[in-house]
Predict the 3D structure of the following.
Amino acid sequence: MTPEERFQALIDAEEKIEPTDWMPEGYRSTLIRQIAQHAHSEVIGMQPEGNWITRAPSLHRKAILMAKVQDEAGHGLYLYSAAETLGVRRDELQELLHQGKHKYSSIFNYPTLSWADIGTIGWLVDGAAITNQVMLTRCSYGPYARAMVRICKEESFHQRQGYEIMMRLCEGTPEQKAMAQDALNRWWWPSLMMFGPHDTDSTHTEQSMEWKIKRVSNDELRQQFVDMTVPQAEYLGLTIPDPELRWNPERGHYDFGEIDWDEFWRVVKGFGPMNRDRLAHKVNAWEEGAWVREAAAAHAAKKAARAA
């Protein structure tokens, strides 16, 4: 059996590909791109929420938000570690991100204007992330699949935390409910964009599904998210900002309007409301944290020398 045949046999048998197994270069490069983009998204995603830690409305809310942002940092760590098993160094991935050669989720290029945005991010953005990521626990690449098990469990808590914020706002004053509606109006369409382009326009979906890196297509995942989220909005008494949204009894799904794909591609290409700010903040943090990395490396070398 050739290496190619053995690789395909493992995929077909629903077995995991491990770092020591032979794999096609295309499989390796696809995983590096996807895992790196996922890791970058977790780290960049700390910014819009971290911006609200000092302004959260109570000490209780501050503690919860700090824990959530800390979780996102941990998710980035798991994912960068998974990428390293494919033979790429973490600092290489950082450099590619800083140079604009690697992408992260377009959702994080929108500003958080009110406390309701923090609830909406938890409810919609983390809800979309869970929809997108649960299938990755069955990814054919072992280290990625195993990392996703813990990440999805933690993201489910984040989604509940965000929805709970929205519930409190909607049960509050008319001004608080209006704040919640305003946040939903601004985050709904960017959340649908998180699933990527239509299947017919997606460059990587078909091959990723053949390799079982990805299990469900972009449009199917987007539909799942809409079907799950609309009843939640109705329970809150909020209105989804889509005049074309309606239940289709024949399909057994909600019909919904078309995404503004011009905006989607504009943000993906680096021209969103916060693209420059997000990346500049990340680069600055990396540069200012150089002394920490150098100190940790020196300590590790000293410890190894003593052991020797």
User: Anything to note?
Assistant: The beta strands are 246-248, 253-255. The longest strand covers residues 246-248. The two ends are 44 Å apart (CA to CA).
